[in-house]
Design brief:
This protein is of the alpha/beta class and about 350 residues long. It has a domain at about 1-190 and about 235-265 and about 295-315: 3-Layer(aba) Sandwich (Rossmann fold). It is about 40% helix and about 15% strand. The protein has 11 helices and 13 strands. The strands form 4 sheets. Strands 3-2-1-4-5-6-11 form a 7-stranded parallel beta sheet, sandwiched between helices. Strand 5 (about 120-125), helix 6 and strand 6 form a beta-alpha-beta unit. Helix 7 runs parallel beside helix 9. The radius of gyration is 19 Å and the shape is globular. The relative contact order is 0.15. The structure holds nicotinamide-adenine-dinucleotide. Nicotinamide-adenine-dinucleotide (NAD) binds near residues 61 and 126.
Length: about 350
């Protein structure tokens, strides 16, 4: 696989973010000639961008005409990872979500729709847009599962409409789009508090895994909502990057692939494992259910990506958590500086997370 990316020119929208950073490193390791990252640093930090003469950073929104004007038909691959992070920020400000999570996608696809050189345009979809809303027993969500009109958040709406556009531009204009639909990604490079204040404490507590790891390392109680019965499909970021590269190299144009582990893990189990691995003895703190979230239990089917291009995750949850805990320990001063930026906004409701 790595040969395909040797000497490639790659554009990564949202490239300063968590997944973007890890993807950039993987592309550099695979011999990419040049990676251009476009990012407005809404939920990321300049210091998280890998330093290399092969990495260029253009700060700004991909919906900005001046940025688009700089993007010519000279890329081999385009990855669109830009998003308005995340569900709770989008509920707080649906217009900001639209601007940075959907209008962005439309403007990018429309701009590149007649490009001839690009081999693949990979769009990162979100499993939460498709998963059946249930607190009963979950079944693996397949790529062609029905899509409900009842979405939990503007974020989920934008992510799925982004998929509609990916399909539309593929069919109508022959743009070689492939959708990589992620589950719950965790791992090194996800910095709590990265970026600008987005109206809720979720700006800091981006997602359950980094939040639990940070709090466990501080010896604090892990906040568990609704007895921790919700389940997720946790996937280590290196596996997601492998999945993105597989979609770029082997995914069929116009298609969608779950990039999932296929393993269902409850939040309670996640908390127990993190407390065990960090040696945190403080008992968990029980909180009521989040009222906006109805997708209790979910995990992704791995069949299609495995069948079509042999994609399988390599890193177990335990191993991935150990690596992430180690990275968090080492990176703590940077993470705490990012959290600290939002201190004045965090007074109220600061226990809410993921
Ligand atoms: N992390 C997960 O668990 C997960 C799960 C499902 C899907 N995804 C998708 O994966 C992608 C990457 O997510 P992530 O976890 O790295 O999030 P992230 O917040 O770290 O990265 C998203 C990046 O997009 C940038 N951005 C926001 N608005 C922009 C704009 N207008 N123009 C250019 N850049 C802009 C942000 O500053 C940020 O750097 C997103 O599309 C997200 O929806 C992530």
């Amino acid at each position: 696989m790595s040969k395909l990316f040797r000497d490639a020119r790659v554009l990564i929208v949202g490239g300063a973010g968590f997944v973007g950073r890890n993807l950039t490193v993987a592309l550099l390791n695979a011999g990419a000639k040049e990676t251009i990252l476009v990012d407005n640093l809404l939920s990321s930090e300049h210091d998280n961008i890998p330093t290399s003469p092969k990495v260029s950073f253009w700060e700004g929104s991909i919906a900005d005409n001046d940025i688009l004007a700089k993007i010519g038909d000279n890329y081999d691959y385009i990855f669109h990872l830009g998003t308005y992070h995340g569900n709770q920020s989008s509920i707080h400000d649906p217009l900001a979500d639209h601007e940075n999570n959907l209008f962005t996608t439309l403007k990018l696809f429309n701009h590149v729709r007649d490009f001839k050189r690009v081999r693949k345009v990979v769009y990162s979809g979100a499993g939460c847009s498709v998963a059946k809303k249930t607190f009963g027993e979950a079944e693996a969500t397949s790529e062609d599962a029905p899509i409900s009109l009842e979405m939990d958040s503007p974020y989920s709406i934008s992510k799925i409409v982004g998929e509609f556009y990916a399909v539309y531009f593929s069919k109508q204009h022959g743009l070689p789009t492939v959708r990589a639909r992620f589950q719950n990604v965790y791992g090194p490079g996800e910095v709590l508090g990265a970026g600008k204040w987005r109206g809720t404490p979720a700006t800091v507590w981006r997602n359950v895994t980094p939040t639990f790891i940070y709090k466990a390392l501080k010896g604090q109680a892990l906040p568990i909502e609704n007895e921790g019965i919700a389940t997720r499909d946790f996937i280590y970021v290196e596996d997601v990057v492998d999945g993105l590269l597989s979609c770029a190299s082997k995914g069929r144009r116009g298609e969608v692939y779950n990039i999932a582990s296929g393993v269902e893990t409850s939040i309670r189990e996640l908390a127990q494992t993190i407390n065990e691995l960090t040696g945190n003895m403080t008992p968990v703190q029980h909180l009521p259910k989040r009222d906006w979230d109805s997708s209790g239990k979910r995990f992704g089917s791995t069949d299609k990506a495995k069948r079509e291009f042999g994609f399988e995750t390599k890193v177990s949850l335990r191993e991935g958590l150990s690596r992430t805990i180690e990275w968090t320990r080492i990176t703590l001063p940077f993470i705490e500086a990012c959290i600290q930026k939002h201190a004045k906004n965090m007074a109220k409701d600061s226990l809410l997370f993921y």
